[in-house]
Amino acid sequence: MLPKSNPKSRWRKARRFDSAFGARIAIVSAPYEILEHPADVGFLAYGRTLAELFENAALALCALACAPEKIEERSEHEITACAADLESLLYAWLAEILAAADAEQVVFRRAKVTLLCEPASGQPGEIRGILFGEKFDRARHAAGTYIKAVTLHQFALERSADGFRARVFLDL
């Protein structure tokens, strides 16, 4: 279960507190919160809809890898993932984004979900989206954390009173 948060206070200024599951959380003025962990880093992402949650989770992942302020939207990359349940679908989406960024040496500024079909009646779910960014340029981009993989450690996706939220940890 994810730590309870006040939906009206999601857009707070940066401050730190201990979460219910033992990690330190740095809250930022964004639709996600960065989670500090002794060995890894993670985030809580929020969305009023599932599509918004998936976009905000992609934003959190990309912002950890490279500061988005200096990334220009010069190229579009289509990402597709399928999975049997919502948690696995989010995991597959993030893993595909990470694989595309690593293989093509690109950094992403934002994501847009173009299709999201929830898993139902034994049918797998599917997500399609477009990521906007450009080739990584050492001279212009502030490289962040090198992310090796998305992990299943404490991975969770749940409906909340104000929509959806997910907890994701990344292997560094």
Q: What is the structure about, briefly put?
A:
The chain is built from two helices and ten strands; from the N terminus they run E-E-E-E-H-E-H-E-E-E-E-E. It is globular. It is of the alpha+beta class and about 170 residues long.
Q: How does this structure look, described?
A:
There is one protein chain. This protein has 172 residues and is an alpha+beta fold. The protein has helices at residues 50-65, 86-104; strands at 16-18, 24-27, 32-36, 41-47, 75-83, 106-117, 125-135, 149-150, 156-160, 163-171. The strands form two sheets. Strands 1, 2, 3, 4, 8, 9 and 10 form a seven-stranded antiparallel beta sheet that branches. It is globular. It starts with 15 loop residues before the first strand and ends with a strand. 34% of the residues are buried.
Can you lay out the helices and strands and say which pair or pack?
Blueprint: E1 16-18, E2 24-27, E3 32-36, E4 41-47, H1 50-65, E5 75-83, H2 86-104, E6 106-117, E7 125-135, E8 149-150, E9 156-160, E10 163-171
Antiparallel strand pairs: 1-2, 2-3, 3-4, 4-10, 5-7, 6-7, 8-10, 9-10
Helix pairs in contact: 1-2
